[in-house]
Structure formats: structure tokens, C-alpha cells
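B., you asked whether I could sanity-check this one before it goes into the benchmark set. Here's the sequence:
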Amino acid sequence: MLFSRHSGVGSVLAVVFVACGPGATPRVGDAFPRDENAPLLSAVRESLRDSVVIEPWSAGSDQLQTVQLNTEQAVAFAENKAVVGVVGHSGSRDALLGAAVYNVRGVPQVVPNATSRLVAAAGPWTFTLVPNDSVEGKFITDFAVDSLHARRVNVLYVGDEYGVGLRDGIRTGLRQRGIEIADAAVVPALPCASPENLAVYRGIAVASIRRSRPEVVVLVSSTPGSWCLADIVHGEDPDIWVLGADGIGSTEKVPAEFGHVVPERLRGVTFWTPGTDSLNQAFVELLRRHLQRDPTAGEALQYDAFMVLAAAVRSVGNDRRAIRSWLASLGISRPPFAGVTGPIAFDAPRTGILRMIAPQPSTP
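And here's what the prediction gave me:
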């Protein structure tokens, strides 16, 4: 239930939890390598009011050791008996590495924003909040064909579980419409800020465009990489429609440094935009206070992941198996959980949260 301690954000978002039995206060692992005092965590803690404690990432931050760090962190959470569930990890590959541990060790894992279908199929202890790459790929291709009337579609994608999965989802969606991908090219999973990396991005993107002369180019990369590619594509041909997967859709405005981007010819997938209901209004107010800006879709999903795990603890206590069963029952024997991003249930993909948005031009 919701508890009003005082007027304002806390009165809408704060949750009262029943006692979880003897022992330490249950903890939820935060499988994102970030500062323990990050503003998002501060907002989550304000809503939880110490009824569930956040156990922060502790395995280090060397991104060149992603495999080792994600596995080590998952083992650390699994061996901490006070940790009753985990939020994360941060992307499809990272989430899969964690899932391999959690499904063997019996730890509920709620994944906010990984789209790989392999994550959803990782095992009964892993729960995903966003539709998988097959669903998102079909959503993108339906928009390209039905709204843009495209017949020639290119895909520029990173060569990891996220990028390959969405490429395949787009290919399947197009084939269902009697269309083949015009061209597909792997792009680096590297920052494009340096002249050397930018030259690699440019060479791949321009060659793909000149090979196939697409009407639509779909970008499946990190947010910075997607903006870099959009700038290159429109620099080569400003009439091409650029559709970003959830990388571009997570940004409201075109970054000022990408001056070739044509906003009128760009759309991006997102999983959340602020609603007008009281829960969304309170969430936005809370996050603005902590972040000093509007929250992103990714932050809304992370917030919901913490909240649904906390609600499980409120309902069934601090037993991991009982929490897993409670999560699995949402939408089946229990009603969906009312999240900021919409009703949360794990009996079917959350197709209703997919949106195609038009980022706004940067402010001069």
C-alpha cells in the first residue's frame, strides 16, 4: 500500500513494508558500476526509506575486464545472504553474465533495460522489464514500412548480444513483410570522439550507404555512438530517415555537437515518456530534485526494478525463493505491479511500453 508521511513526492511513492523476519534488513544489489552516492540511488533510497537497503557494486570499474567484473560481482551478491534480489546488470552482455550466476545460485534478478532475448531465456530467476530484441525489431520495422513506406533499410549495429539480437529482430520483421535488409554493417563499440575512431565510424557508415542507397538507416549502438552515426548518415545524405534503437530514444534533444543531424528525419525508440498520472508526476518531481534534470527512460526502468523487488519483500519477506515466486505470479495469480513505466508483469512481453519519438533540435 501507499503511505502518506507528508504531502508531496514521498506521499505518492513511499512504500510501507511489513516485517521481513529476524536478521538484518533485506538488501537489494545494485549491479550497475556507479558511485554509491549517485543521484538516482539517492532518489530510490528516499522512496524505500531504509525498509530495503541497497547493496552497491563493489567489484571495480575497469571496463576492459567486463566479463570478470560482472561475474565477480554476481558471485558477491549471491554469497551475501542478506541480498534478496539484484537490479541489473547494465546491458545485455553484462546481464547475461550475471544471470549465469543468479540462476545457479537462486537469486532473483530484475533486469531494467537489456533487450537480448537470451536474457529473458536465461532461467527462472531472471525477469526483464523491456521487450526483447525480436519485439523491438518488429516494432522498428513496422514503423519503417507502415509509417515511412520504406523498402530499402540498412542496419548499423555493434557486434554484441544487444546489436546482433536487434539486427536479427529487424531482419525477421522485414522478412515477414517480404523485404530483405539492404545492407548490415558492424560498427565499433568505441567512443567516436577521437579522430581515429571517428574515421572508422565514417568509413563504415558511408560505405554502407553508398553500397545500397537506403531510404532508412537503423542504428543499434550506444547512445554516443548512435548520435555519431546519425551525424555521419545525414552528412552523407540528409534525406535518409534515421531510426535509432533505444540508444537515441533515451535522449530528448539532439546534442549540439552533431550539427549534420536533421531532426525532422530522425526518430528513436524509447520505453517510457512521463505520464500525467500522479505516480509519474511524483516520480518526475522526485528525480528532478535529485538529478537536477528530467529523468530518462533508463532511469525510470531502474527505479521500477528496485520498486518491484521491494514490493516483493513487502509481500513475502526476505526469502529468495518466495520473492522469485511472487515476481513470477505478477499478471497470473496476482495483478501487475503498478510501475512508473506502466503495469509490470512477466507473463508476456511489455509491448505497450514501446514508443517511437522525435528528439528535438538542440538549444542554441
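One thing to flag: The first helix runs from residue 9 to 13. Otherwise nothing jumped out at me.
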